[in-house]
Amino acid sequence: MGGNGAVTEEKPGTVRWVLTCMVGGVMVGVSLLGAYSGIFWKRRRRNKKTIRVYMDGCFDMMHYGHCNALRQARALGDELIVGVVSDAEITVNKGPPVTPLHERMIMVNAVKWVDEVIPEAPYAITEEFMKKLFDEYKIDFIIHGDDPCVLPDGTDAYAHAKKAGRYKQIKRTEGVSSTDIVGRMLLCVRERSISENPNHSSLQRQFSNGHSPKFEAGVPASGTRVSHFLPTSRRIVQFSNGRGPGPDARVVYIDGAFDLFHAGHVEILRVARDLGDFLLVGLHTDQTVSENRGSHRPIMNLHERSLSVLACRYVDEVIIGAPWKVSKDMITTFDISLVVHGTIAENHDFLKEEESNPYAVPISLGIFQVLESPLDITTTTIIRRIVANHEAYQKRNEKKGESEKRYYESKSHVSGD
């Protein structure tokens, strides 16, 4: 009995010791497994090849369609390298560009999905240039939209890339093109020239109602399409940064029409962003722009302008339909630390007397600052370029149509249709 009792007393200690060893072993095993897993995944990440994709283009009069193409291209890889076609190549293949290379470079570099830019890229992907992309730039795939890119002889500019099996295609953004925007501006100018006739409604009203303008007195109707762009919440989210300012962030506010988003806009936004931690951009409504800049403006509607601004890497958030006057309530609501305005602008309301100055409140609070604009470019500058060369741009559009016709005819012969 006594012996059995002694054994009974030792059992709990033995069990505890065994359990302790088992638990300790399991913990050590888990720790070793965790360490091994960490090393494994680090090595896997380190060994995973970075996929570099290439997309080229003219990016003339850059718009939200271009930006959406770059966004889609970036989603097909880890890094997006963009080739910007030279002025000379564009002139030979399509006609003179509206915006010169240095302005187009500014625009492409400012798009948030772009990692690297190659200036003066060729219009067509030749075998020589394709080898350079693969060897020097380590490109894995060449990307283009599902619309044809046709050379003057009617051949496919991406034929070599397709043959090499290194070509990927994205969906083209419907509803906008540089050709369409040029048409809108030519229509705008034509409308202004006959604005004395009360029977002709304003371009802004035509855009709003979705009517194709028709002119009398022997003036032909324009071939351009009016804007029917309808944004979705998904598209806005795709373009948005999806984050707000931090608790102690210095919020900088700048507003305007930002019509025909151009290099001048990009550069003033860059300067404004450098003054704080968060750049908030206010976009005025179409009605507000028309009231202050004429019934023929804006060329791009509010939602088109919003996406163009949201695609800019210097912009953190946009107020879609911002008020003309910056109020005290607005400053408080968005916790704005500084309100800024560039020296180069369509109008100079920020210099008006206090009562009619839209920035009277921030001026009175000592939080308003005028910034020296890096570039002397406005939306009117772009329109004047179109007007000065309208014949060349009309020929450019005709040339593009002829090239595409030859392309589709060649495809038809190949397929036997």
Q: What does it look like?
A:
With 417 residues, this protein is an alpha/beta fold. Helix content is 46%, strand content 14%. Strands 3-2-1-4-5 form a five-stranded parallel beta sheet. The radius of gyration is 30 Å and the shape is globular. The N terminus and C terminus are likely disordered. Keywords: Lipid biosynthesis, Lipid metabolism, Membrane, Nucleotidyltransferase, Phospholipid biosynthesis, Phospholipid metabolism, Transferase, Transmembrane, Transmembrane helix.
Annotate the secondary structure layout.
Layout: H1 2-47, E1 52-57, H2 64-74, E2 79-85, H3 87-93, H4 101-109, E3 116-121, H5 127-135, E4 141-145, H6 159-163, E5 167-170, H7 178-193, H8 203-209, H9 233-239, E6 251-256, H10 263-273, E7 278-284, H11 286-293, H12 302-310, E8 317-322, H13 328-333, E9 336-342, H14 360-364, E10 368-371, H15 379-388, H16 390-415
Parallel strand pairs: 1-2, 1-4, 2-3, 4-5, 6-7, 6-9, 7-8, 9-10
